[in-house]
Protein 1
Amino acid sequence: MKHSEEKQYTQSSDPENFIPKFRRRNLDKTGFLNKLARFAGRLGEPIVRQLYVLYYLWDSPHTPRRAKMIIVGALVYFLSPIDSIPDLLGPLGFSDDIAVITLVYSQMKTYLTEDIKERARLATEKLLRKTS
C-alpha cells in the first residue's frame, strides 16, 4: 500500500468519519450530558452509569479504534432523535436505546479500567442527585 493510500485509509477509518456531519456536533460532552440529564430518571441508574462508561471509554486515548467505532455507534443512536422506537413514546420509548447500550457495554467490559468505572459511578450519583 502506498503512503498516500495508507494515509487515506487511516483517515477514513477514524471513528469520527462514520458519523454523519449533521450528527457530529451532538457527540460532544454538552450534547451528551444535556440529553442524559433530561432523561436520567426514565433511564435509571444502571443505564445512566453504562452511558457514562461508554462515553468515558470513547474519550479515552487507551481505547482501541475498533472499540471506539462501536461505542460511537451506540452513543449516536442514543443521541439521535430518530430511532426504531421514538424516545417520546412513554415507557417503551427507550427500550431500543437500552438494548443497544447494554449490548455495547457488555462488549466493551474488557477495556474498562477502575478509573473509568469510578468516574462513571461518581458522575451517575451526581446526576441522579441533581435530577431527584
Protein 2
Amino acid sequence: MADEEGEQGKPKDPTALRGPGEGVPPAPKGKRPGVAADVGALATGLRTTLGEFFRPVVTTMYPEDKTPRSERYRGRHYCPVGCILVIAAENTDENRVSPGERYAKTYEINMLRCIFCGYCEDACPVQAIVLGPEYELSDTSREKFIYTKEKLLEPLPPDVEARLGAAPPPHPDPPPKGGGNTRP
C-alpha cells in the first residue's frame, strides 16, 4: 500500500479506491454557482445567526434560578412498588403511643423506589402523607433516601401548611334515616 500512496498519504491513482468497473465520476455539467450565490448563502446564514443573537435569553440558570412549579406538582409519598415499610406494634396500658389499638413501630419510605404516583397520599385517611413541591432529590448516600418517621415529622413548609390548614369543602347533608320518600 505504501507503493500506491503519494506524498501525503493520498493515493497516486484515484481509481485505486474504487471497485472493479467503477470509473471516476464525470464532472458536473451546467453553470457553476457564482460568487454572488456564495455571498447570498453567507448572508442568509449570518442573518439567522444575528437574529438568534438578539433574541432574549430563555436559559434558566439552574439551580440558582428555578422555574415555577404547578401547585399540584407531586414530588415526595397503598404503594404499587412497595417503597413504604410499616411494622405495627400493639399499644399496651403501660406504653400507650396512640389512641388506637396499634401504632407504627417502624415507618420508612424508600425514596429510591418511589415512583411519585401519589396513591399513598390519596389513601391516607388523616392527610399524614403529603407530596410536596420538592423535586431535587439527589444526595451522595443511599441511606439518606430512606425516610424514617422522625425525618418525616419535620415541620412543613409554610405553603404546604397553609394548603393543609384550609377548611375542607362542606359535605352535603346526609339523607334522612328510614330511606324512601319524606313527604310532609
Protein 3
Amino acid sequence: MTGPAGNAAVTGSGWDRLAQAVAEVLPPSEVDGVWVFTPLRRESREWGTAVLSRIDGDRRRIYTARYVLTVKGRERGKFEASVQEVGSGTSEALARLVQEAHRRIDDEHPPTPVSPESWFPSVRSANHPDDGPPR
C-alpha cells in the first residue's frame, strides 16, 4: 500500500488489523475508495484514521475507520477499532468531504489515496487463498 508520508508502505499491524475490522462491517468488494491519514504516535499508543467510500445506487456512503494500537508496555499489541458511517452524498461531494476532513484535523499531510485492492490484501487472500495476488 502507498503510505501517507512519501512512498512508505502502509503495512504493519495497525493498518492490517484495521482493514480486517472494516471487512467485518463492509464487504471489501463494495469499497471503491480509501484515504489514509498519517498515523499519530504518542507515548505507548498509535492512532490511525482512514476514510472509506462505497457506491450505494447513485450515492456514495462515507465511513471513518479508526484504530488505537498499544505499541509499548505491558499491553503491547492491544488493538481497538471502530467503523462509523459519517454520511452520504453525490459522487462529486466526496472530494470536498476529504478536503474538509483534512482541514478540520489540522494535519500537515493530506490524506493519501490507497486502492481498495491494496488496502485489503490480507482480507482478500484469506477469503480467496487460491486466487493469487490482487489484480
Protein 4
Amino acid sequence: MPKFSEDWELRWLRIFRGGPKERLHPGSREMLMARTAEKQKKEMLMARTAEKQKKRRRKVRSAPKSVKTAPPADSKNPIDLYYWPTPNGWKITIMLEECALPYTMIPVDISKGDQFKPHFLAISPNNRMPAIVDYDGPNGKPISIFESGAILQYLGRKTGKFYPQDERGRVEVDQWLFWQMANLGPKAGEANHFRNYAPEHLPYAIKRFSNEMNRIYGVMNRRLEDREFLAGKYSIADIACIGWASRAERHGHDLSAFANVRRWLETVLARPAVKRGLSVKVEAAFHVDLKDPKIRAVLFNQRAR
C-alpha cells in the first residue's frame, strides 16, 4: 500500500478534477488549482495514476467465480472502499462480496487520525469510515458516498440486489436498516465503550446500555418470530446488522434468551459472501494499543475542528 497522503491525493484529484467546486475541501481546492495550472503537470499526474492502477490490480478484491451474483454489465472499474475492520466497515465489505463487485480496499487508520486528512474529508466530511468512490457512478461519472446506510442503499440500487425495487418492499427494508443505524449500532457501540474502553468503571453507564441492548435484541427477536430475515427476504437490513450481532457476546450481551436472533445469526454467518466480508483484515489494526493516551485521544476525545 502506498503512503496515505500521496495515494489519497492522486485518487482525489482523479475523482474531482474539473468537478463542482462546492464539493471540494477549501484547502484541497487550492492544491487542485495549483496542480492543474500547467498541462505538463497534469500529464505527469495522469501517468503516475495509471501506473498505480496497474500495480493495484493484484490487490483488488473480487468475489470468486463460484458466486452466482455476477457483476452488473456497467461495472467496469473497482470501487474504492475506505475501510477499517469494524462492524460498520464490515457492512460494506459484505455487501460488495454479496454483489460480486470488485473493489480496492484502502485502509483508514482511525487510530492515527487518517480520517481527518483533507483528502479523506473531501470524500467523507463527517470524518468517519466507511466511504466509497464508484468510478462507474450515475451517468458514467465518479461519485463518492459516505455513511454506511447510504452506501448500502446506493449499492442496492446500482446492482438491483438485496434492496427491493417496489416501494412497499423498499419501505420494509428501510425501516429495519434505519433501526440498525439508530439503535443496534450506536447502542452496541456505547455498551462496548463503557464496558471495555472507559478509563474508569461506571456501573450506571454499563447497566444503562446493557439493558438497552437487551431491549434491542428483544425487538429483533420478536421481529424474527415469523420470518427468516428482518424484511422477509435477505436484504441490506440484515447486512447492516451482521457485524454488530456477531460481536454481541464479545460486547457483553447474552443472546441465550433470544432464540430467533441466534437462528438468524447462524443463517447469515453461514453465507460464503458474509464470511469473506468479515475476513477483510488490516494488519495495522491488530497492533493498535488502546492504552496509549495519544491513540485514545484520537479515538475517544474528538471535538470540532
